[in-house]
Description:
heterotrimer, B: globular, C: two-stranded antiparallel ribbon
Amino acid sequence: MMKPRYAVIDLTTGQVTNYPISEEMVAMYLGGKALAARILYDELKPGTDPLSPDNILIINTGPMNGTGAPSSSRFNLSTRNVLTGGIASSNCGGTFGVKMRKAGYDGVIIKGKAAQPSYIEIIDGEIAIRDASHLWGLNTEETQHRFDNRYGMLVIGPAGENLVKYACAVSGERVAGRCGVGAVMGSKNLKALVAYGTQEIPVHDRQGFKRYIKEWVDFLRSHQSTGQDLGLYGTSGFLNKCNASGILPTHNFKEGSWDKADMLSGQHLAENYLTRNSGCISCPIRCERRVMVEGKEVKGPEFETVGLLGSNIENSDLGLINLWNYHIDLLGMDTISLGGTLAFAMELQEKGIKDFGLKFGETGNIMDAIYKIAYREGDWGELADGTKTLSERYGGKDFAIHSKGLELASYDPRKAVGMGLGYATSNRGACHLNGGYTAILEAIGAVPVDPITTKGKPELTVFLQNTLEAVSTAGFCLFTAMTMISGFAFKLKPSGKIVGLMGGCMLSARFLLRGIWNKLPGAMPFNSKYFLPHVEAVNLVTGLKMTSGNFLQIGERCYNLERLFNMREGLTGKDDDLPARLTGIPSDPQNPDTVVKVKEMLPLYYRTRGWDKEGVPTEEKLKQLGLTR
Amino acid sequence: MITVKYYGPLRRLTGMPEEEIEANRVSEIIKAIGKRHGKEAAKEAEKCFIMVNGRNAALLNGFRTPLKSGDLVQIIPLTGGG
Amino acid sequence: MAHTITEKCNGCGLCAKLCPVSAITGEVKSMHRINVKRCVDCGVCGKACSEGAVLNARGQEVVRIPRQQWPKPVISREACSACAICVDVCGKHALAISLPLRPGDLRVYAYLKDEKACVGCAMCAKQCPMEAITMEIAGGEEVPA
């Protein structure tokens, strides 16, 4: 196995040194967010202000990046979270990760703060810090135009420079959106990273790997979800279903459905705005939307963006969302946190608590507000601090829709309560993906599980969280895990009893899913293309001999390590919570069960994870995962 | 009377976004769609998610899920998948 | 390994212009150099050189070939998954993903958009995970990538 090559770049002193990664570390963490969490845990002093020079930003890849495996261009950014104070991990499908590996580095660990605006150049195995005064102030598109267009780039926009707490980093048109990683770059005077090189990416068994991924790509293309639906309608293809299931956030998560939602759906987008679909490099799924904005073909909005800048602020004009989405990307902000914050400001106005001049249903001043937020100008500049800070400043904590400080994604969890548990426990804050994406089974998927019951949800959430964590760690897009739901299910009548029973089986599997974690990896001594095709691909690339059990254990290990990091930064079990609106006020007044009973689900969730009653990983669990020293 | 809302290809096949149908069960809705809008529409409806008052019929009683006057039935294509 | 330039070089700069990874530098009318770390051994420099000044990785002189006979990528539409790795890897921006024929058409594929820009370096063929690309000389003869 080739050892990954990591460098420490100290922006204060300008020094670049190597950071050794042992083979053992690769076997335990693979790469990506898991390996980054390990490095952060080892290197970051507890209590470091996220925006201080002492914070560490890790930008790294997994073993699959650039190998040609399907949907494997995703690279990771980890640091201390600007919004939550816990761990931040944000992942992006741009070309920077692949190009960084081809330039000879698997990851960089960035420390300190440059004296003046700078960018980092990683070319042919050499790292240099260069002056970026001429780039400072430019938007993300202009900045990238200043470099050779063959380079992989990762840049921030004005929002990152101005330390907007939910500023993102942009690579091409793909975005590492969440957790304020752009602000961390800005705080270090780091405008951009660029990478280019032609080194070969190591693959242990090249012949076997080529054969395997060909089969895998064919499999993805033949699957209803990854081969058809995501390509046709993108992620907003979920919207109508979410609306009908009552999980489409409306009016700052007050309601779960909206009568005008039809105007925001993926089908509406496809029929009225879509020019074509596209995708990240190496992806056969191609869920990216291309739309015309201001005479240019640009990236269209994702489902999250449509929900949070649509129904959640009561805007039914999809054209406007396309336009805002483009400008928010130019400025470099997270559309999820921004949308959530706008809705919170609107509700503050509605309740007469604080008037920011933003009202539900009024869209005329939003563009102005977006720019003012990015530049932190005037009253609207305050919104750059995010929902949690605003609620501490003005009140309204009951309807400040965040967990740990990170705004919720576009799924109202009251009619998808497993998703609610996921939001509450997710290490980086209320993220649907880090939270396990249980909503995909509860409200969207071809095999539905009962969305209201709490039975089986803790177990399912733990399983999905660990699975997605492992998939992400290797460098894959999470959509490659969509095929876990057999293509066979899509051929059945979606409303017939059979799929209902299949969904029921998933919840009945809870006893199995509860016990399995203490018996890994031995309890899953197999590999299957139909279950997790990723495992065999990783084996062929790295030369490891993992089973599905080993692979899932990497996900579990990562989840526990991130939890340890959070605890060291002062987060406790009490932070595994959601705002009172979601835990106390039923989404459906007729059905008192349509709330997220976090307190009811947590004990079993903790138990399934091998954590104590306070949510602290037990010594036994840590020992089992090899996390004790 | 049941309010039935159509999404996706069904809207094109039926030529309308919603209509009122008299029915006691989900299966009767499908039958009625077949009668009013043709076999193709009924076939398409079977391939869709059928939501009864916001709940997936698969989790209720499938095509035998009973309906009462005033219920809302939404028929949504599988797009976006699982 | 990498290609190298010998003293026969007359500094015409053609190789530097053609190199798909910009590995060659040098002043006009003086000897050019190949960056060993960057070179992908595609041999385009040598095929273009009028002086026979380029040696391949094994130290043999690369034979000049008229440009019309340089191989071009031929892409199988059936095998291509439109993952765009080839589009990204092409230093000459000669490849693109086709446009859908009608709304909802998902059967798109990579194609040689700018034949003149292509230098036949075969990086696309080497990187294609689906092995959908073969390098062929005009007239149909296949060349190993």
